[in-house]
Amino acid sequence: MALSKAGFAPDTASNGREALEKLQDNEYAAILLDLAMPSVHGATILAVLHRERPELLRRIIVVTGMSDAVVDGVRYPVAAVLRKPVSIDALVAEVNNCATRHASAHPSP
Q1: Alpha helices in 26-87 (DSSP H)
Q2: DSSP H stretches of helix in the chain
Q3: Hey, how many other C-beta atoms are within 10 angstroms of the C-beta on 35?
Q4: For the segment 83-96, what is each residue's pLDDT rounded down to a tens digit?
Q5: Closest alpha carbon to 58 in 46, 71, 41, 44
Q6: Distance between CA atoms of 103 and 71, rounded to whole angstroms?
Q7: Which residues of 14-30 are buried (b: 16+ CB within 10 A; e: fewer)?
Q8: Residue 67 has what pLDDT?
Q9: For the chain, does the N or the C end have fewer beta carbons within 10 angstroms?
Q10: CATH number of the 2-103 domain
């Protein structure tokens, strides 16, 4: 709701497999990724994107409650890592940063 109120059109995936499918078929300015997702782990999604669509890594905001050791193991260049519980203001600010960088890199005609 907070992202909608901030002017974004959020989309959701109920598990990692669905997230990968949506990332193949849609264009997103910012991607919130939980590392602990059912069916396909967030770290696996990062590895697939690194191999197949590395340009998306800079649009990913990892949102996690996992330990520092797990988060430190994220070896791909993501936009940000937010720790749960996440403040709504921090979340909206990071999504806005990603969307702004994406819009700057892909100006409208």
Answers
A1: 42-52, 68-72
A2: 2-5, 16-25, 42-52, 68-72, 88-105
A3: 21
A4: 899 999 999 999 99
A5: 46
A6: 28
A7: eebeebbeebeeeebbb
A8: 76
A9: C
A10: 3.40.50.2300
Could you tell me if 95 and 63 are in contact, meaning their C-beta atoms sit under 8 angstroms apart?
A: no
The length of the chain, given as a count of residues: 109
| pLDDT < 70 stretches in the chain | 69-70, 73, 106-109
In 3D space, the residue among 54, 48, 61, 1 whose CA is nearest the CA of residue 21 turns out to be 48
To the question of pTM greater than 0.85 for the whole model, the response is: yes
Say if CB 75 and CB 60 are below 8 A apart: no
pLDDT at 96: 95
Cβ–Cβ under 8 Å, residues 61 and 32: yes
pLDDT at residue 66 in the model: 80
Query: Phi-psi region for residue 67, left (φ > 0), alpha (ψ -120 to 50) or beta?
Result: beta
